[in-house]
Design a protein that fits this description.
By secondary structure, this protein is α/β, with parallel strands linked by helices. It is built from seven helices and seven strands. Helix 1 crosses helix 7 (about 235-240) and helix 3 (about 75-85) packs parallel to helix 4. GO terms for molecular function: gluconate 5-dehydrogenase activity.
């Protein structure tokens, strides 16, 4: 087939982006909508869903929101059935919902660890399992797992998160291995350090006019010499959701400004 920019279009496709009320998930959903997809999202409670719907309306997007805990398999199955009845079969799944608990390992309870793994690893398994049968029946499907640099690296205080995101990388590869012959492409996106409201305190100018020490550390460690923006994830997401990536499978695309490729400068 000759190349055409139309391969990046998502017209007529239905995309479920879990937890996409704000931040990275919302930006990802907006990018898919800009390419023509119909957006479906979920969150834990009606108040959050209503806030998300308002955010989408403000952005000129008619989205569909559902209340669902993605760690609850029964609730997820019911949500997917409802989406298929009310909107249509899901063509694109973005497993975006996630949490992090920054606790030193020796102080982290087993319950805290389980909670992180439940949301960041078990939930993508549950939601993927729920959407796959209809994707297989339809003859195509795209699953995009939001991984992390912690899929490759460790760091103090994030044992649960790193374990879950490392597992998510391997779940991505296993879905590829098991369902690639059914024309299902499962890939991941591994964001670097992204400038979001959640990371804003780490980027604030200090009273003496200097940058926050963590901000200095990240900028020095990143060859691009800056934090990523949520919009930096838009193009990669559309690519992995589109026909342009039909022969890309089981891959994690790191959108990190080069940080994983760089050992850092030698101290002077």
């Amino acid at each position: 087939m000759d190349f055409s920019m139309d391969q990046f279009r998502l017209d007529g496709k239905i995309a479920l982006v879990t937890g996409a009320v704000y931040g990275i998930g919302f930006t990802i959903a907006r990018s898919l909508a800009a390419a023509g997809a119909t957006i479906v999202f979920n969150n834990l409670d009606q108040e959050s869903v209503d806030k998300g719907l308002a955010n989408y309306r403000e952005a000129g997007i008619e989205a569909h929101g559902y209340v669902c805990d993605v760690t609850d398999e029964k609730a997820v199955n019911e949500m997917v059935k409802q989406i298929e009845e009310e909107v249509g079969v899901i063509d694109i799944l973005v497993n975006n919902a996630g949490i992090i608990k920054r606790i030193p390992m020796l102080e982290m309870s087993a319950e805290d660890f389980r909670q992180v793994v439940d949301v960041d690893l078990n939930a993508p398994f549950i939601v993927s399992k729920a959407v796959l049968p209809s994707m297989i029946k339809k003859g195509h499907g795209k699953i995009i797992n939001i991984c992390s640099m912690m899929s490759e690296l460790g760091r103090e205080t994030v044992a649960g998160y790193a374990a879950a995101k490392g597992g998510l990388k391997m779940l991505t590869k296993n879905i590829c291995a098991e369902f690639g012959s059914a024309n299902i492409q499962c890939n991941g996106i591994g964001p670097g350090y992204i400038a979001t409201p959640q990371t804003a305190p780490l980027r604030e100018i200090q009273p003496d006019g200097s940058r926050h020490p963590f901000d200095q550390f990240i900028v020095a460690k990143t060859p691009a010499a800056r934090w990523g923006e949520p919009e930096d994830l838009a193009g990669p997401t559309v690519f992995l959701a589109s026909e342009a990536s039909n022969f890309v499978n089981g891959h994690v695309l790191y959108v990190d400004g080069g940080i994983l490729a760089y050992i850092g400068k030698q101290p002077e």
